[in-house]
Amino acid sequence: MQISSAWAQTETRLTWLDNRFRVDPAIEQISFIVTREQPSQSVVLVAPDGRKYYANRHSKTMSWYTDNGMDIVSINHPMAGPWQALGKVSANNGIRFISNIQLQAETLPSQLYQTEVLKFSAQLTQNEQPLLLRDFLDRVQLKVIFYPLTSILSNQSNQSNQSNESAPIEVGQFSDDGQKYDEVAGDGIFTVALNVDVEPGKYRVEIASINGVFKRVVEQTVLVYPTPIITSFVQSHQPLTPHSVDIETKADQILAGSLAAYLVVKQPQQKPTIIQQSSHLQQSHLVLSWPNDGQIGKAWWRGWAYVTDLLTQRELVFRLPQQNYTQVAAVAADLSSSLVQQQLKQQLIVHHEQQQQRLFWVVVTNIVIIISVLVVLLIWRRKRVVQSDLIVPK
After folding, report:
1. Which InterPro entries did the record assign (predicted)?
2. Please, which pLDDT band fits residue 221 given cuts at 50, 70 and 90?
3. What global pTM score does this model have?
């Protein structure tokens, strides 16, 4: 676990009639939790030197969170001595303060993969134990933010590369509700399913509280590499041919034989079905298929792929996002086949007509030739007869 700071750990409940409390000189940061009667406005804090602070007007060293019935004020390096909260402070809950909170977070792997999903936890602690003050924790929002880092080579000098940050990308919010990846609700351990859906590159990662209850940040630097799996979907257009998803891993990054996959498939007029499969030894890809059931309509599939990193032996999980498609039924295929047959038949008719036309012109040509020959023969014969009649007898 990585610790953002170390503060002295104390929680105190105060119910003095004048709502006064004393801050010890050793305290570096303190959070006041003031429960108010309803209806009421936010309290006014009075420092030992008489300065007054308000929810909408306070020192830069303060962060002030207010909602119905409660104020949470965090102060860095508070002035030592007696403080006072002026307002309708609840006689039952009074004023509580906790000091020197620690924000701890797991250390991210230095090498992440694009589209990878991993379980990641953080917690607030006191005396190295989870902080369980629900009034405080219920108003804490912890987020994971990726800040892209790019290198800029200076052309003006021989200095080394300087770092420049692009727009931040929020990739997850922690929860402590016992849902999804969170194991136990209300145990002070916040969990997030970290979806590394960012472009490959170098990032500065912040685990931060951003809602004003208190300001704490844990920073890490990671490298995001291109995803080591390639997924392709082949849709069937024939009833006897199944749909299929091919998942292939990169041999230089993923341990052979470690691939397993889980798909949820929803076809028209059917309940979702689950398809699971794992690779054999030395196998680097899987093909998961399901039948084209001949129903027309919209369909989809989504799932998960599980592999082992070859270099670090780290178990990796990749979400296969939902892919929608329209399924073509057998009737539509028959219609398509009938259309093709009609086109072929039409082509045959046209071809037959063309042959008939060619035959017709061949016959006509032959007849013309025969007639021409006969005409020539008749002319020639007549000339012979004429010449014979002109001969004088001896």
Report:
1. CHP03503 (IPR020010)
2. very high
3. 0.68
